[in-house]
Amino acid sequence: VQLQAFGGGLVQAGGSLRLSCAASGLTINTYNMGWFRQAPGKEREFVGGIRWSGHGSNTYYTESVKGRFTISRDNARNTVDLQMNSLKPEDTAVYSCAAGAVALAEATMPRRYAYWGQGTLVTVSS
């Protein structure tokens, strides 16, 4: 199993970036997928996730990114994307994707995810 996040870069405050998480060795629509970030000197933080409910996908986000970030799934490409709009300097971090059979109540907990990809750095300048 391999996950790889890409798409990071340097952007000015108010700008947008789109991150993608490419999966191999697993089918993303059979796992709960999460995005996490870690800023320098801080703990890893849950950003958002997407779950397959049988009736479609459900997404959920940490409060600080609601209305600005959107997670989507592309089953044909086997990728999960994180569209980030209205970026702020405090969004600067290494962003990583993760996959696992995670209960909704535990979706914000990094230790509940079995698979992790290498992160991609997002830097937002003021």
How are the secondary structure elements laid out?
Elements lengths: L1 E5 L2 E4 L4 E8 L7 E7 L6 E8 L4 E5 L7 E6 L4 E6 L8 E8 L14 E2 L3 E6 L1
Parallel strand pairs: 2-11
Antiparallel strand pairs: 1-3, 3-8, 4-5, 4-9, 5-6, 7-8, 9-10, 9-11
Structure annotation, total helices = 0
Strand content: over 45%
The CA-CA distance between the termini, in Å, is: 37 Å
Average pLDDT value? 94
Q: If you compute it from the alpha carbons, what radius of gyration comes out, rounded to the nearest whole angstrom?
A: 13 Å
Shape: globular
The number of strands is: 11
Largest sheet: 7 strands, mixed
The chain-level structural class is mainly beta
Q: What is the percent of helical residues?
A: under 10%
Uncertain runs with pLDDT below 50, 5 residues or more? Answer: none
- Give me the strand/helix succession: EEEEEEEEEEE
Short description:
With 126 residues, this protein is mainly β. Helices cover 0% and strands 52% of the residues. β4 and β5 form a beta hairpin.
Distinctive features:
4-stranded antiparallel sheet, mainly beta, globular, 11 strands, 126 residues
What does it look like?
It contains no helices and eleven strands. The chain is an all-beta fold. A hairpin with a 6-residue loop joins strand 4 (32-38) and strand 5. The protein starts with a strand and ends with a strand.
